[in-house]
Each structure stands twice: as C-alpha cells, then as structure tokens.
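Reviewers of the previous submission asked for a worked example of the structure-prediction workflow described in the proposal, so we include one complete record here. The input consisted solely of the amino acid sequence. No template or homolog information was supplied to the procedure at any stage.
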Amino acid sequence: MRKLLFAFTAVIFAITLAACEGGGSKDDSVEIVFWHAWGEVNQSFVRDMFDSFRAENPDLDVRLSQTGQGGWTDLRDTMIFAISSGNTPTMAVGYPDHFANYINGNALRPLNEFINHPEYGVELEDFIGGFMAENMQFGDLIYSMPLAKSTEMVVFNKTVFDHHGIYPLEMDRAVTWDDLDQWNETIVGSGPMQCEFLFNADSAANFYINSSRQFGAGYTNVEGEILVDNPETEAMLEFFQARFADKTLVLPIEWDQQYGSNNFIAGDVCMTQGSTAGTRYNIPTEETGKFGRFEIGIIPVIQNTFCPLDPLADPDTIDPRCSAMQQGPNIAIMADATDEEALAAWKFIRHMTNVENTRYFAQNTGYIPVRNTAFESAEYQAFLDTTDPDRIPFAMSARAAYNQVLFYRFDPAFIGEVTSSRARDEVGLAIEALFTGDGVEAVMDQLRNRLRLD
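From that input alone, the workflow returned the following structure tokens.
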C-alpha cells in the first residue's frame, strides 16, 4: 500500500456542540472524545449506555464528549483533516475503507492488547463471524470492533401484494429476480392497485456490488485489483438494462431523490430496497399518496438463485452467490490517545458491545446486534415477535436481517492508485448511467476509463 498523502485541501469543518455527560471535572477525569455521524436520537442511546457504564464502574472517573460530524463522508473528511493537524478524538466510528486510510497514516491504535487482556478482554467467537472478519482484514492486527451493523432489506406494499394474492412473507426462501419478472406482469401498471415501478434500489453502489456477487461477476479483491472488466459484468448490466426498460427496476434519481422512501410511500413504486437502519422512513403515517396509509411487509434482499431463509442452517450448504450487503460502522481508538484514555475508551467499547447493550441499541435504532448470543437471547426473540404496532416494522426489519445472516458479505478495503472508496463510487455511477440511457458498452468503457483498467 502506498503511504497516504493527506492533502491540505479545503475541508469544510462544521464545528458542532459536543455534549458532555458524566461526572468529574475537566481537570481530574479522563475524557473520551467520541466522533460519529449520528443525530440526537442515536446520541441519546449512546448517553444511556455511557450512564450504565459509569454506574457499573464507579471507581472509573471518566466523562464522555460525543459529536456528530454530519454524514459519513463528512466524518471521514473531518477525520483526515484532524489526523493531518494532530487533533484527533479518542475514538471514532467509520467504515473499513475509511479505516484503511487512517491505518496507512498510522492514526489507529491496534486493539489486540485489549482484546486478549485476561481481565477486560473479549471472546471474539461470540461476535457475528462476518462482522469480525470485516475487522480482521488488515493482517494480524485488529484496529476496530463491530458496533452499529446493518444490512439491506426490502420493504413492500403488502396492501397491494395481498390484493393480487402474492404473499412474500410466507416464502421460506429469498425472493428472486424470476419472482420479480413474474410479479411485474401483475403489479406494474396504471391501475388503482398497481405501481408505475415494481422495485427500487436505494443505493446504486450497493446494488452493483451485491449484484456482482449474485451474478458471479468480479468486483475487487484484497490485493486492490479491480475485477469488473469481464463478460459476466456485461451480462449483468444487460440484464438490468432490460429491467429498467420494463419498469421492474428503478433508482431514486428517477424522482431526483437520494432515497426511494418518499416515492414508495407515495405509491410510485411497490418495493424498495435499502438499509435496515432506515426502516422508519418507509412507514406511511398519513392518508396521503395513491394508497393512503397502507400496510407494509419486510423481507430479505432480492437474490438471483435459491437462498433458504434459515439462519441456523449449515453455512457450507449456502450457495456463495447468496449475498446481502454487510454494512454499518465499526469503532476504533485513535493512536494519539494516551494509554489512560485508550483504556477508558476500550472499556466503554466493551460495554457498548456486550450482549445487553448491542441488543438494546439494535432494538431502538434498526441496527443489528453484533453478538450471536444477543440475536439468540429471549429478549431479542421476543422483540422479533412483538405485537406492539409501533414496534412491528422494526421487528420485521430485524427478522429479515436475521433470516439472511448467512448471506452477509463484505468487500475488502484498500488504498492505492484506485481506492476501494473510489471503486465503490464509480460502480454506483455506472449503474446510474445505465439507468439514464447509456448503453452497456458505454458503461463498460466508463468503468475501464475511470477505474484505470485500459
């Protein structure tokens, strides 16, 4: 990997007010400065977990200052600026491609010493395998831990589907493209119980990356090679070009939107695929739009082969083409933290990711528990079966995530002439170009040129 050059370009540094929680004065207590990209709702859950952390550790004199830095890209840019200026927080959340840059700049502290400590270490075996694998991709050193993980799910208009006698919730396998092709004939149209489009994919980049696994096309590898220039990719793009044409598939840019939730609620599209963390945005709450306050259902992501919805199945029996995006931020400690600050931060990370708190955070945010025992706990299983109308959509989202846990896949993070972050951006733009009318060959040329494959 090439050494990261932190460019001193203009970075808009939005200075936000950091809320300080916990006892002790600024002179005699250890301060954990925590940067993330969450708003006030999720910050309140972090405060709750910090309160219980202090209650369980009365001899630890520590306080928390947490700051939301805007969106995830804003957080990454602010972190790079902070690293280059030597003014980093104690700990921060981020995605693997963000952390790859920080690691290359020697800005993250390895966590092995904490993980393996006889007194305050953790048993990694209880963490979801795919989540830990994502955090163990940088060699022998572990620089981060899973914290707020999510995946994608499909929300569908159950009122419309029930009307046509189609019941996706009763299927013991994932919905496939063959199913969508069949349903298109019934659900897409201008009738009173039809939508103009069948299926929306919120993230064009996620859609491309996940589809590349489902269709056996290449994307990237751990060496940082870009593997998109092949006949399988061309066939995949031709497949989606046809589905764009017959309105089986649509992207939010059809409505000049970043996400499809508003148009799903309005009745323009009958299915929408997006993050489990965004469940609340797909719930119709008013008698507006074509279908009013319709009933929703939530299922795992669309697949391209037979994928059984059995989270307890033998993983070796699952077709490797069964794939669902594994996403959501991990948490790391910065190298500039003092030993005392780093230890306090680690103990808080350990607290936030214990069985009780990962379950608590998941049930209230739409994220996924990071521990197997939290998934399997009686409390979480009861949550999945809730009859509380206000909680049912979140429980359905969680169950969809749980049912596809054996499909979780992640892509390697790397830097170099073309970074993993750049590759992600470019494949998303390629799908959008295909949607707006560019031909398959033009899109392939765009990928070759922008990803420097010529």
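The longest helix spans residues 40-56. We consider this example representative of the routine output the project will generate in years two and three.
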